[in-house]
Amino acid sequence: MSDKPLTEKIPRYCKGTGMMAPTDSPIVHIACRGISPFIFLIGLYVFFHGHYSPGGGFQGGVLMAATILLLRLSLGTGLSQVVMPASITLRLSAVGVLIFAGTGVITMIFGGDFLDYHFLPLPWLDPAYLRYYGILLIEVGVVLTVMTTLIAIYDDLLGY
Amino acid sequence: MKTLQYFLLLAFLGILVGTVIHLPPRGDIDSPVHQTVNPAGTLVAGTYYIQHAYKDTKTPNMVVAVLADYRAYDTLGEVVIVFVGGIACFFILNLRRRKP
Amino acid sequence: MHWLIEFILFFILVVTALTALNVRNLLAAVVAMNVFSFMAAIIMVSLGAVDVAFVEAVAGAGVIGVYSVVAIRLTSRKSQD
């Protein structure tokens, strides 16, 4: 097996792209690609179930970033660009901050204070549930910012 | 130099231990932070959150209610700090690479 | 028995902190720092602060380790002092 040329060892999904993974062990590739969607699912659960159990935006965002970092470590930065391209990470991070601050500005436009969810323009809901969905809205901003910023710092460290 | 570091660590440990042994024991009902009314006669802030958090926001997890509703300014500052950290890493690490 | 478990956790905490300060191999120092973060997270669970422990376990023991390993790969693996 070891006298094969190096091009034979490149995995099938790398061929024709000119990119190589840091390791050619199929065990590492298949294990990391197989387990990362489930960790992402746990991150989504932690985020959306944060109203009822320990969790919330920051923890869920770091868990989702950890799945992408696992793919970056195992497959290499070049191959895992398919999952989350390095060019959109900081832009998505800015969008997250914009969602958070935009919620506050919307409540200011509709007559309340900054980040006072009682004045969100959803008149068919109870005031308590307005605050419930306001919390969910700003947690979306927190998740987007934390997840993409952690990936962006990793990409900047390796120079992508 | 190494011994100086350990003496500094020991001095810091002494300060910490001297502070901690004067704190009330953990879970003490009579300690001032666990009272409903503080010595000045007004309501403690934690009491208000415990009594009103579920009624105000319908969120059983009180920590999220405090973080994202009552203290949303602080969370906004936290998110902005994370974003500014990412921006700073982007500029500093790419500046060194573009120079030569 | 409760204090005994916490005593063991605090002992591992101090030992891993001193290990991370003293060891020459920086990769071993990163692993010791990860163990430190995880023990801190378990102590926070035993204090009743589950949310803080969650952040500590995910960020301190997970992502910071990845960043430190990448930084070591970019510079050198041995400590100079």
> Residue share in helices of chain A?
55-70%
Specify Rg of chain B, calculated over alpha carbons: 23 Å
- The overall number of domains of chain A is 1
> Biggest interface pair, residues each?
A-B, 39 and 30 residues
Largest sheet of chain A: none
Task: Give the low-confidence spans of chain A.
Answer: 4-8
Mean pLDDT of chain A: 85
Secondary-structure element string of chain A: HHHHH
Shape of chain B: flat
The fraction of residues assigned to DSSP E strands of chain A is under 5%
What shape does the CA trace of chain A take?
elongated
The poorly predicted ranges of chain B are none
How many separate structural domains of chain B? Answer: 1
Report the end-to-end length of chain B measured between terminal Cα atoms.
Answer: 38 Å
Write down the oligomeric state: heterotrimer
Alpha-beta classification of chain A: mainly alpha
Describe this structure in words.
- The complex is a heterotrimer of chains A (160), B (100) and C (81).
- Chain A has one domain (6-158).
- Helix content of chain A is 62%, strand content 0%.
- Chain A has five helices and no strands.
- By secondary structure, chain C is mainly alpha-helical.
- The relative contact order of chain C is 0.16.
- At the A-C interface, α3 and α5 of A face α3 of C.
Explain the layout of strands and helices:
The complex is a heterotrimer of chains A (160), B (100) and C (81).
Chain A: H1 6-9, H2 26-48, H3 57-75, H4 89-109, H5 127-158
Chain B: H1 2-20, H2 45-57, H3 62-70, H4 72-98
Chain C: H1 2-22, H2 26-47, H3 50-74
List keywords for this structure.
heterotrimer; A: mainly alpha; 5 helices; elongated; B: 100 residues; mainly alpha; flat
